[in-house]
Amino acid sequence: MRFQVRLVMFDLDGTLLDTAPQIAEAANRMLVGLGRPMLPQAQITSYIGEGAQRLIQRCLADSMPVAPSATLFADAERLYHGFYAANAHLSQAFEGVMPALTQLKVQGYRLACVTNKPEKFTLPLLQQAGLADFFEVVVSGDSLPKKKPDPLPLLHICQTLGILPAEAMMVGDSETDIQAAQAAGCFVVTVPYGYNQGRAIDVATVDATVKQLTELVNLLELPALLSGHTKKMTYIS
């Protein structure tokens, strides 16, 4: 099956970049700073996908018998953001990401990145990985009033680029991406190497799966050439 789309939107963590090692390290350094026991990396990785606040909440809940106070959570958030800012640049793109984005761009597809990660981490990560120039629009977890799995970020990208949701595809690694795409009326393709809170994706719920992103071009019909296609990246904030 080949999909006729003009816009391809990509999740960040677990789809484009392998950010789990740095996230887990920052979370454990946060816990140590609060006098709490560290957690296994695999456990923290299973918390990725719903945004930094949710990840911090889950880490705290697993390391203490009672719910954290607002003051403790604020301290935890400050520590986590500081530690993550110091090591986020070490995250690497998954195999096949760069050639896949290059080919899609050359073939005339509009590309966007949509993530639940805060903008202050999203933009530097894309820059340091050499991926920033591929995307016309980048929507982060704090860019809009709602984030994935709500469809708003995807619909906003479609509206910004003047493309119908039925002509758009979401590529991600989690149920969060699947729910957002289906609610928005977009196609959805998933990769198996991501995080998805430690669970395997039910392939029956998606339009297609690819082992790595270089396979994506084989699923797509070439879009019509667009006049004046080259645009600067748009930050939604």
UniProtKB/TrEMBL annotation:
Q: Which InterPro entries match?
A: HAD-like_hydrolase_sf (IPR050155), HAD-like_sf (IPR036412), HAD-SF_hydro_IA (IPR006439), HAD_2 (IPR041492), HAD_sf (IPR023214), PGP-like_dom2 (IPR023198), PGPase_prok (IPR037512)
Q: Which Pfam families match?
A: HAD_2 (PF13419)
Taken from the UniProt entry, a GO cellular component term is: cytosol
Positions annotated as active site in the UniProt record: 11
GO aspect biological process, one term: carbohydrate metabolic process
Record bears the keyword Phosphoprotein: no
Q: In which pathway does it act?
A: Organic acid metabolism; glycolate biosynthesis; glycolate from 2-phosphoglycolate: step 1/1
**Cofactor(s) listed:** Mg(2+)
Q: Which GO terms describe its molecular function?
A: metal ion binding; phosphoglycolate phosphatase activity
In the Enzyme Commission scheme, what number(s) does this protein have? 3.1.3.18
Q: Does the keyword Isomerase apply?
A: no
Query: Which controlled-vocabulary keywords does the entry list?
Result: Carbohydrate metabolism, Hydrolase, Magnesium, Metal-binding
Which reactions appear under catalytic activity for this entry? 2-phosphoglycolate + H2O = glycolate + phosphate
Record: residues binding Mg(2+): 11, 13, 173
- PANTHER family linked: PHOSPHOGLYCOLATE PHOSPHATASE
The family classification in the record reads:
Belongs to the HAD-like hydrolase superfamily. CbbY/CbbZ/Gph/YieH family.
Its job: Specifically catalyzes the dephosphorylation of 2-phosphoglycolate. Is involved in the dissimilation of the intracellular 2-phosphoglycolate formed during the DNA repair of 3'-phosphoglycolate ends, a major class of DNA lesions induced by oxidative stress.
Q: What is this protein called?
A: Phosphoglycolate phosphatase
